Amino acid sequence: MTTLPHTRLPPLIRHALRPLLDPYRRYRHAKLIHAARVALAILVSIGLSTGLRIPHGEWSTITVLIVVGGLQHHGNIRKKAAERALGTSIGALAGLLLILLHSAVHAPLAIYAVMAIACGVCAYHAIGKAGYIALLSAITMVIVAGHGDNEIVDGLWRAVNVLVGIAIALAFSFALPLYATYSWRYKLADALRACAAVHARIAGDRQVSDEAHLKEMAALSALLVQLRSLMPSVSKECEISMQQLEAIQRNLRLCISYLEILASVRPARDDTAARDYLRVAMKATDLNIRDRLVGASRALKFGTPSRLGGARRRPDVPHDAPPPQLSGYVSISAKLAGEVDQLRERLLDTARSWNI
């Protein structure tokens, strides 16, 4: 998916809609857009049920809230749509059967027991892959049947209202969706810039407390986890395979690991010879690493893959042999530079897919 419908709009209209269509603004204001979308869906539901005087129309509004309340990425919408339709159909059918059973046997206690068992079965399956279907089935069943003593006409109207609510919710879920690719892009950009900041601190010999260092690394680890959770949706939205995303994730994970190692093998405060060597001989290598991390971050944030181009630069090898205690630091710096270059190459290879 490399082109979007709004790219074919006339320039004047595209400029007027830029605040809504700009990827970064939509990412930054995703909660606000989602709130407006839900509010409009509620208004449409109320207007439709009130204008047509549909009995029990409040259930369509309740259904809209249940279905569209959670913010979903575009890559999950088709899957969720199928799950919602299936769960609603199962629940509505079960609710109508309960009403018919109640009118046939006139045994409220037996109906209550059947409802409890049905809800228990749904709860059992709610913990698993089909959890959303099971949960929605139970909710719809109770909406349609009540405690089993609803009239069949009321049950049918409630089933219709639930389906109407589902349709409204799905229609609005496609309005200005938050693409997982946007979140993945900008979170990866934040992670790369944070890596550059940590490396600048380490190479610049700026001392921070252990608590501050752990806080920085914990923030990077949290971004790594968030990126992984977005990968399945990104793969569905774009022409990027999970293998390619895993490779990018691995490069970032290794960069973070190498930064952690660099922080632990820095020379001691009283080792002036080693510190002078790092400040002079390693300056070009350190600048190269930071420049390429920041360049990749800007390419992702501003959608400029050209920043990722250029010949791959090997880290400059110091002419003088490093002090023995710095051999590990120099080696890890070279590995870090290699991982950064690999990450940039992979981002450049997949730029046509993620730059939407």
TrEMBL record:
Its keywords, alphabetically, are:
Cell membrane, Membrane, Transmembrane, Transmembrane helix, Transport
Segments of this protein annotated with the region Disordered = 305-325
**TM helices/strands, residue ranges:** 32-50, 85-103, 132-148, 160-180
The compartments listed are: Cell membrane
The cross-references to InterPro entries, in alphabetical order and at most eight, read: PHBA_efflux_AaeB/fusaric-R (IPR006726)
Q: What is this protein called?
A: FUSC family protein
User: Is the Cell membrane keyword given for this protein?
Assistant: yes
Is Transport one of the keywords?
Answer: yes
Q: Which GO terms describe its molecular function?
A: transmembrane transporter activity
Record's Pfam families? Answer: FUSC
State the GO CC annotations. Answer: plasma membrane
